[in-house]
């Protein structure tokens, strides 16, 4: 049971008071009782002495004139007048005067025992004092009704009890007031501490006292000042660290010594969500992290690994994971930190740079070779034409055809060289703001007849009339037409479908050109931008290489996704045209 | 063991229990609002306990069975029914009074009529009335204690005084706890009394027959003679008149409806719903206790049709139970009377002190004081008002006792119209309130003087003309004020 400090103070005092009061009342009761009894016996002794003296005087006064029996009779008659009801006289056990019907036989025998001294006896409800009078051979007994005596006693003692109750009430009131006053500042302190523990650190206690409690309050206020300052600093540091964790573009997850996750920052949660349907060698992202933490624990060493997570639709994410060990004491392992970063974009950039370098070197080589081949080839073509003229008359149909084929092949080589030189030369883009809607419709006119002849369903989605892009107009046409031409060629003979979907963001415009054609195999997809790589019998393999060059020149991006026999999706990203660019 | 020692034993254990219950709430009061109105956060249980215990005064416990013993069933219509109707008025008053945000009736007057004079004068009237009422409570209780314990009257009232002060010192929160205990004691006393009476009855029909047979003076030498078959009659065989019954409503019913000792409990409730629930539940509980009181009153008369001369009707119960019941039962009934007196007197003492602090001292003194100082002053006021009541109770002048018998009527003629009129009539004015109080009080005094020599046992209560005149004056003066305001 919880006992308040107030009760802890008041209860002992009250207990002490009640015990003292009870002892005082009880002892005064005993004292008063004994006093009443002894004074009563004393009175009765006096009365008995008085009777004895009266009897002696009477006996001496009468001398020998009267007979003893007559004298006794006279004496009893006189005593009956003086002491009616409270005097008994026995002679050899026989009652001569008074009524002893209320006395027991034993008591009467005791009263008739010949004692010289006053004998005090309490019988039934009476107090008795007896004395044997040898001269008369009488036993004299004085009696007093005890009930009557006690009722007087109780009546007077009642006031002691009432005064006791009054003082008990006063003492209780006094104790309550004193204990309440003593404990009040403690209650204030306790209430104050409750408020502080509730988190209200700005409060200050006001106790205008100079005693120990006042000093305690002062100390508490000072402590709160320090606590407040420390808390402010702590909160600042905590918030600062939290801000770092929240804003860092690295996922950070902490684990305890038993590899149970403790915390993760928002970026980690975001990556986890993004990688929900990705896996690395059949394991989910979460499992992969657990495995690397397990490895860290086993080897007691920080770990590093680059994970390549793949999605069912072929998308790939590169996650760079680092682990480190948190040591709480000198050597004790407190937990593990796992930080990771999505480096997929970085990987794409790297691959693009590699591709560009590869294309550039290939282009330079091809241009050099082409330039060297071109002059002899021109000589060869001229010589063949001269020979053809000179020998025209001698040539039969078959030989003439051979000459023609020779010239055609040389022309083809020339075209190839032309394309090569085109590819190798630096395209200088002159970008301007261009209305995408008009431009695409203009391009659509160019390919419309072809689309109709091949029964291809063509559509444009989300194309707004006011969408502007910042590109070189001619080069943009070249890019889009090239892609569309490829899409048309890949489209099936029936139910062909090409869709251009436009997506605008704050700074860019994305054109997603999708067809349901034959698609590109996974092996070929990596090489489509390489020069001379072609899957067509008539192609030079330079179309997409040039497209790539033009896109780079216009500071755009190209990405191709394809599933063989299902179709291809080409994503073209260009800068968005705006007033700012106009300016 | 003398009989008074058995009573002393009961008294001793009652004292210990009361000391315990009174102690527990002492340190809960931290402000004067906690002290006087329980911080306006009191729950239903505490409120019902203190409401019923305060309601059930020595008048209910002693005067009511005594009056029923002498006059019969008509007293139920004369006092109990008006009280219950008065509780209905309190129920109507509750939402508006609580919405006003006032801490007392005089404070409400100041808020409603913008008159500090009205607040201070009403505060003083309440203090004056309650001091006298406490005198009556102390006196009634002192007589009972001195008779039972066979001690001098002065010692008896000192004991009462100490108990009343003890239970009031802790404030309303503390008082509610001791009131709860006191009401339990009251209920036990009434239950035992009722049970014994019912035990002595053969059947209801036999009881009714016996009651109808009662005839003659209930108290030897007393003026009222009970005609045969009139004990259960509503108008007591002609002694009571309808107009007297109606006039009693103006005193008891409307007096209760304006009595600050009930409104303070409405204000102390934690919300309006709790306050309304407090009134409903209290009235239901009180109805049960009144049924017990009626049975005791009528039962005593049937069993003992006449008693020898007693000082007043209030002494009938103590005389009858002493001769009819065994000593322990009488002791419990004695405790019930004590509990009723203490639980009412301490509430009245607290209301008197709160009127002084809120409505007189708080208005007159502008100095800002801390809660601790105000609490100390409040306790000092409790001590002073209690001591004043004790001194007056030692040998109260006859005129004070006569006035004390009309205090409920004084409340109804002075407070009813300004309070209910202010709450329910938008056009009520300050002048209307002040003049209604003055005219009501004057009419009541005049009517009392005029009818003083009337020989009728049940006169028209002077509060009836008082309330009627105060209502008329309130209406007319307010209306005139409104007309003048419109003209301006």
Automatic annotation (TrEMBL), chain A:
Enzyme class per UniProt: transferase
A Pfam match: HAMP
Domain HAMP positions: 180-232
Domain (Histidine kinase): residue spans on this chain: 368-578
Protein keywords: ATP-binding, Kinase, Membrane, Nucleotide-binding, Phosphoprotein, Transferase, Transmembrane, Transmembrane helix, Two-component regulatory system
SUPFAM superfamilies reported for this sequence: ATPase domain of HSP90 chaperone/DNA topoisomerase II/histidine kinase, HAMP domain-like, Homodimeric domain of signal transducing histidine kinase, PYP-like sensor domain (PAS domain)
Reactions mediated catalytically: ATP + protein L-histidine = ADP + protein N-phospho-L-histidine
Location within or outside the cell: Membrane
Domain PAC, first and last residues per copy: 300-355
InterPro entries, per the entry: HAMP_dom, HATPase_C_sf, HATPase_dom, His_kinase_dom, HisK_dim/P_dom, HisK_dim/P_sf, PAS, PAS-assoc_C
Enzyme nomenclature, EC number: 2.7.13.3
PROSITE patterns named among the record's database cross-references: HAMP, HIS_KIN, PAC
Keyword Membrane among record annotations: yes
Transmembrane annotation, as ranges: 9-29, 159-182
Protein name as annotated: histidine kinase
Origin species: Fusibacter ferrireducens
TrEMBL record, chain B:
Membrane-topology annotation of the record: Multi-pass membrane protein
Record's keyword terms, sorted: Cell membrane, Ion transport, Membrane, Sodium, Sodium transport, Symport, Transmembrane, Transmembrane helix, Transport
Short name of any one Pfam family annotated for the protein: SSF
Signal peptide: none
Membrane-traversing stretches: 5-22, 42-61, 68-93, 117-136, 148-169, 181-199, 235-255, 283-304, 316-342, 373-394, 400-420, 432-450, 462-479
Compartments in which it is found: Cell membrane
Cited InterPro entries: Na/Glc_symporter_sf, Na/solute_symporter, Sodium:Solute_Symporter
Coiled-coil boundaries: none
UniProt catalytic activity: L-proline(in) + Na(+)(in) = L-proline(out) + Na(+)(out)
Family indicated by similarity: Belongs to the sodium:solute symporter (SSF) (TC 2.A.21) family.
Protein name (database record): Sodium:solute symporter family protein
Organism: Fusibacter ferrireducens
Highest classification ranks of the organism: Bacteria, Bacillati, Bacillota, Clostridia, Eubacteriales
């Amino acid at each position: 049971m919880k006992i308040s400090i107030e009760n802890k103070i008041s209860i002992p005092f009250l207990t002490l008071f009640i015990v003292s009061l009870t002892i005082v009342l009880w002892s005064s009761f005993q004292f008063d009782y004994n006093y009443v009894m002894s004074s009563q016996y004393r009175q009765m002794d006096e009365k008995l002495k008085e009777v004895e003296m009266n009897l002696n005087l009477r006996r001496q006064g009468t001398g020998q004139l009267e007979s003893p029996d007559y004298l006794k009779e006279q004496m009893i008659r006189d005593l009956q007048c003086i002491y009616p009801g409270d005097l008994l006289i026995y002679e050899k056990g026989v009652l001569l005067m008074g009524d002893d019907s209320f006395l027991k036989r034993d008591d009467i025998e005791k009263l008739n025992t010949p004692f010289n001294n006053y004998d005090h006896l309490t019988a039934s409800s009476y107090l008795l004092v007896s004395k044997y009078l040898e001269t008369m051979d009488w036993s004299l007994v004085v009696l007093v009704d005890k009930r009557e005596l006690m009722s007087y006693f109780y009546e007077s003692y009642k006031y002691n009890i009432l005064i006791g109750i009054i003082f008990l009430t006063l003492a209780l009131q006094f104790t309550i007031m004193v204990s309440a006053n003593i404990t009040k500042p403690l209650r204030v302190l306790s209430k104050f501490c409750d408020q502080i523990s509730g988190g209200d650190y700005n409060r200050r206690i006001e106790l205008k006292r100079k005693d120990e409690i006042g000093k305690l309050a002062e100390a508490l206020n000072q402590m709160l000042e320090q606590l407040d300052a420390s808390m402010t600093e702590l909160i600042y540091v905590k918030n600062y660290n939290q801000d770092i964790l929240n804003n860092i573009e690295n996922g950070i997850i902490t684990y305890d010594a038993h590899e149970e996750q403790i915390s993760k920052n928002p970026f980690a949660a975001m990556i986890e969500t993004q990688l929900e349907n990705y896996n690395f060698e059949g394991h989910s992202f979460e499992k992969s992290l657990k495995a690397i933490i397990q490895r860290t624990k086993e080897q007691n060493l920080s770990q590093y690994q680059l994970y390549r997570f793949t999605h069912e639709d072929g998308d790939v994410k590169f996650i760079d994971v680092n682990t480190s060990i948190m040591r709480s004491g000198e050597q004790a392992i407190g937990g593990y930190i796992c930080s990771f970063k999505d480096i997929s974009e970085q990987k794409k950039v790297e691959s693009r740079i590699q591709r560009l370098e590869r294309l550039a070197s290939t282009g330079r080589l091809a241009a050099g070779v082409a330039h060297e081949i071109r002059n002899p080839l021109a000589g060869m073509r001229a010589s063949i034409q001269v020979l053809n003229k000179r020998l025209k008359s001698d040539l039969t149909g078959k030989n003439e055809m051979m000459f023609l084929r020779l010239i055609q092949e040389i022309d083809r080589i020339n075209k190839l060289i032309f394309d090569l030189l085109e590819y190798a030369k630096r395209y200088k883009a002159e970008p301007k703001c261009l209305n995408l809607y008009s431009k695409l419709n203009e391009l659509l006119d160019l390919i419309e007849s072809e689309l109709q002849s091949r029964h291809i369903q063509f559509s444009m989605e989300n194309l707004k009339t006011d969408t502007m892009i910042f590109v070189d107009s001619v080069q943009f046409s070249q890019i889009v037409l090239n892609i569309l031409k490829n899409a048309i060629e890949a489209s099936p003979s029936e139910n062909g479908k090409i869709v251009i979907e436009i997506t605008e963001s704050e700074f860019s415009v994305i054109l997603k050109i999708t067809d349901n054609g034959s698609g590109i195999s996974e092996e070929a997809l990596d090489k489509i931008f390489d020069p001379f790589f072609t899957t067509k019998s008539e192609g030079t393999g330079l179309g997409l290489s040039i497209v790539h060059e033009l896109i780079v020149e216009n500071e755009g991006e190209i990405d191709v996704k394809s599933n063989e026999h299902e179709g291809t999706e080409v994503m073209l990203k260009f800068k968005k045209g705006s007033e700012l660019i106009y300016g | 063991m003398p009989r008074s020692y058995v009573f002393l034993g009961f008294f001793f254990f009652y004292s210990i229990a009361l000391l315990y219950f009174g102690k527990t709430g002492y340190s809960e009061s931290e402000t004067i609002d906690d002290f006087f109105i329980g911080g306006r956060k009191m729950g239903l249980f505490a409120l019902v306990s203190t409401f019923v215990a305060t309601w059930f005064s020595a008048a209910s416990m002693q005067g009511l069975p005594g009056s029923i013993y002498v006059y019969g069933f008509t007293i139920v219509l004369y006092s109990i029914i008006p009280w219950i109707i008065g509780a209905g008025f309190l129920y109507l008053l509750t939402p508006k009074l609580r919405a006003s945000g006032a801490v007392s009736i005089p404070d409400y007057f100041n808020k409603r009529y913008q008159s500090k004079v009205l607040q201070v004068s009403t505060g003083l009237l309440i203090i004056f009335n309650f001091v006298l009422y406490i005198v009556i409570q102390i006196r009634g209780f002192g007589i009972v204690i001195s008779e039972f314990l066979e001690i001098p009257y002065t010692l008896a009232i000192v004991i009462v005084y100490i108990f009343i002060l003890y239970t009031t010192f802790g404030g309303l929160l503390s008082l509610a706890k001791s009131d709860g205990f006191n009401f339990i004691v009251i209920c036990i006393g009434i239950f035992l009394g009722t049970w014994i009476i019912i035990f002595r009855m053969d059947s209801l029909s036999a009881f009714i027959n016996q009651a109808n047979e009662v005839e003659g003076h209930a108290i030897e030498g007393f003026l009222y003679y009970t005609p045969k078959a009139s004990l259960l009659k509503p108008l007591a065989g002609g002694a009571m008149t309808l107009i007297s019954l109606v006039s009693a409503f103006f005193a008891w019913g409307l007096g209760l409806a304006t009595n600050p000792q009930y409104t303070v409990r409405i204000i102390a409730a934690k919300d309006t719903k709790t306050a309304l629930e407090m009134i409903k539940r209290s009235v239901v509980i009180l109805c049960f206790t009144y049924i017990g009181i009626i049975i005791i009153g009528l039962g005593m008369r049937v069993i003992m049709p006449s008693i020898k001369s007693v000082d007043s009707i209030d002494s009938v119960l103590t005389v009858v139970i002493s001769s009819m019941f065994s000593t322990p039962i009488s002791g419990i009934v004695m405790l019930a009377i004590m509990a009723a007196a203490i639980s009412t007197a301490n509430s009245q003492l607290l209301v008197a002190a709160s009127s002084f602090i809120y409505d007189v001292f708080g208005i007159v003194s502008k100095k800002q004081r801390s809660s601790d100082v105000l609490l100390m002053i409040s306790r000092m006021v409790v001590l002073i008002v209690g001591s004043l009541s004790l001194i007056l109770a030692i040998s109260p002048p006859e005129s004070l006792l006569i006035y004390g018998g009309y205090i409920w009527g004084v409340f109804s003629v002075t407070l009813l119209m300004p309070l209910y009129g202010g709450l329910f009539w938008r056009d009520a004015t300050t002048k209307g309130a002040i003049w209604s109080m003055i005219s009501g009080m004057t009419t009541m005094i005049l009517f009392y003087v005029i009818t003083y020599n009337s020989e009728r046992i049940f006169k028209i209560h002077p509060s009836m003309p008082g309330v009627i005149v105060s209502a008329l004056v309130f209406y007319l003066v307010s209306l005139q004020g409104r007309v003048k305001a419109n003209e301006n």
